[in-house]
Amino acid sequence: MEILDTLRFNLRTLSDVETFLPVFMPLPVSLDEEARELLKGEESRDVLQAFRDAAAREGKIPYGEWVGIAYRKTGKRGRALFRPLRAALTGSLAGPELERVYGLLSRDTVLLRLERALSEIRGKERNR
Questions:
Q1: Where are the alpha helices (H) located in the chain, listed in sequence order?
Q2: Structural domains present in the chain
Q3: For the segment 107-126, what is each residue's pLDDT rounded down to a tens digit?
């Protein structure tokens, strides 16, 4: 029920749920082209590394605290802070409210997705 509540503003029909369900599964999400392009930037790496370091702490920390740690470490805010995080966690630059998505994901899933996005960035940097 929490997933449907999180998605309610993103659905036009009930069948649209299928589009968003992978976001809530424990497996890595596939990145759409916009998300992949955003993650090419060096700024994305710094932001995701800050989120990853904070998430690696013992236990899952509250979303607001997590964002605060990343902000203090990078100095980034707004779109510069949240778009790379959204791309890494959901595979897209649009979708359900990020705080709610984070709340429904396990710490292990969050770490897995951040690591995967950072690996993609590192791979692109090596290929330059």
A1: 2-7, 17-20, 33-38, 42-55, 63-74, 79-90, 98-104, 107-126
A2: 2-126 (1.10.10.350)
A3: 999 999 999 999 988 876 56
